């Protein structure tokens, strides 16, 4: 592997550009340095007095890009290991599966060369590679097991291309770039990759769930709305301020005109546990709105007293607590 010489400024600009293109997220200098700090990558160069720069091995740069994409939620592993090598280690303990892996690998190599020639011959129609012939032949020769391994191989190679520091491939063709800082500082819910909260923020929170308590309160409401929208409900998102304590109204997709909401939602991005007072308040709103139920979405939990009162009095108010939020985000993340 070769090496390159970069100043502190050049290194930060280069990594920011690559990460921005691959992830669709604009990461500020301080955020980038913080993401890399624990890894030990480029420690001397990235130090505040590292204006002199230094020599970086190309594989070290590649590893840093993969690590950053992992920390931003854009790839499933921080380890920069070629997928075909991972497959080999996965199957090497089973002679039959290892033989199949070797045969599928040979078939992949021959098929991909043909597919690349075909793609180069039709530039006006785009140069994407069609793996259909490879999968068809793998199925013909080795049945369903061959097809499954062929799909695994295609998916893995695609993963490697999408997170490569050098190539133009990326898993999603982002329509724009957004700043990671907006998740924490902006109440704007406009998004080109979601309904109320951008997919890139969801992927980031899936990898960095501990940041859920620090996101902007309006983004927290957007996260809740995004979950219910993806579940197939119609959402009436409140104005964010002066909403009389109701942040969202959730309706069935076949909403009855002028009918009551199915669920009224209050979002609480707090560290303290939810007390009895909020339970009573939401229940009063349920009665006033003639809703079927109320929901408190919180980054914390119900206090024991609030939970006891809710169940003892039969209030139709539920809570989506911190663990529930983790499940919501995990379910909405981009598939690996």
- Global structural class: alpha/beta
Q: What CATH architecture label of the largest domain applies?
A: 3-Layer(aba) Sandwich
Distance between termini? 29 Å
| Elements, N to C (H/E) | EHEHHEHHHHEHHHEEEHEHEH
Mean pLDDT: 92
Helix share bin: 40-55%
Based on CA atoms alone, the radius of gyration comes out at: 25 Å
**Helix segment count?**
13
| CATH domain class name of the largest domain | Alpha Beta
Topology of helices and strands:
Elements: E1 3-6, H1 8-23, E2 25-26, H2 29-37, H3 43-46, E3 54-57, H4 58-71, H5 83-91, H6 95-120, H7 132-162, E4 178-179, H8 182-185, H9 199-207, H10 217-230, E5 234-237, E6 248-251, E7 263-268, H11 276-289, E8 293-298, H12 304-312, E9 317-320, H13 322-332
Helix pairs in contact: 6-7, 9-13
Structural overview:
Helices cover 51% and strands 11% of the residues. The chain has 13 helices and nine strands. It is globular and about 70 Å long. Helix 6 (95-120) crosses helix 7 (132-162) and helix 9 crosses helix 13. Helix 11 (276-289) links the parallel strand 7 (263-268) and strand 8 (293-298). The model has no long low-confidence stretch (mean pLDDT 92). It folds into three domains: 3-71, no CATH class; 83-162, no CATH class; 181-332, Trna Endonuclease, Chain: A, domain 1 (3-Layer(aba) Sandwich), CATH 3.40.1350. The strands form three sheets. A five-stranded mixed beta sheet has the order 5-6-7-8-9, sandwiched between helices. The protein is of the alpha/beta class.
């Amino acid at each position: 592997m070769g090496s390159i010489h970069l100043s502190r400024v050049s290194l930060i600009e280069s990594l920011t550009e690559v990460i921005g293109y691959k992830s669709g997220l604009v990461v500020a200098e301080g955020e980038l340095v913080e993401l890399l700090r624990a890894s030990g990558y480029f420690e001397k160069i990235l130090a505040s007095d590292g204006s002199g720069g230094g020599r970086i091995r190309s594989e070290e740069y590649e590893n840093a890009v993969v690590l950053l994409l992992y920390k931003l939620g854009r790839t499933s592993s921080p380890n920069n290991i070629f997928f075909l090598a991972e497959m080999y280690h996965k199957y090497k303990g089973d002679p039959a599966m290892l033989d199949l892996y070797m045969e599928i690998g040979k078939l992949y190599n021959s098929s991909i060369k043909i597919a690349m020639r075909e793609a180069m011959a039709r530039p006006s129609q785009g140069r994407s590679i069609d793996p259909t012939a490879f999968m068809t032949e793998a199925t013909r020769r080795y049945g369903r097991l061959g097809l499954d391994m062929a799909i695994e191989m295609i998916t893995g190679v695609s993963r490697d291309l999408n997170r490569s520091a050098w190539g133009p491939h990326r898993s999603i063709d982002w329509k724009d770039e957004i700043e990671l800082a907006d998740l924490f500082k902006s109440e704007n819910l406009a998004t080109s990759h979601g309904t109320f909260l951008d997919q890139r923020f969801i992927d980031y929170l899936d990898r960095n769930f501990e940041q859920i308590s620090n996101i902007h309160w309006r983004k927290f409401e957007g996260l809740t709305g995004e979950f219910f929208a993806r579940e197939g409900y119609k959402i009436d998102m409140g104005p964010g301020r002066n909403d009389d304590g109701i942040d969202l109204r959730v309706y069935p997709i076949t909403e009855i005109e002028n009918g009551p909401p199915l669920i009224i939602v209050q979002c609480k991005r707090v560290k303290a546990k939810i007390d009895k007072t909020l339970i009573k308040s939401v229940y009063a709103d349920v009665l006033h709105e003639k809703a079927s139920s109320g929901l408190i979405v919180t980054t914390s939990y119900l206090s024991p007293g609030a939970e006891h009162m809710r169940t003892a009095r039969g209030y139709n108010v539920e809570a989506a607590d911190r663990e529930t939020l983790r499940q919501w985000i995990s379910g909405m993340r981009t598939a690996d």
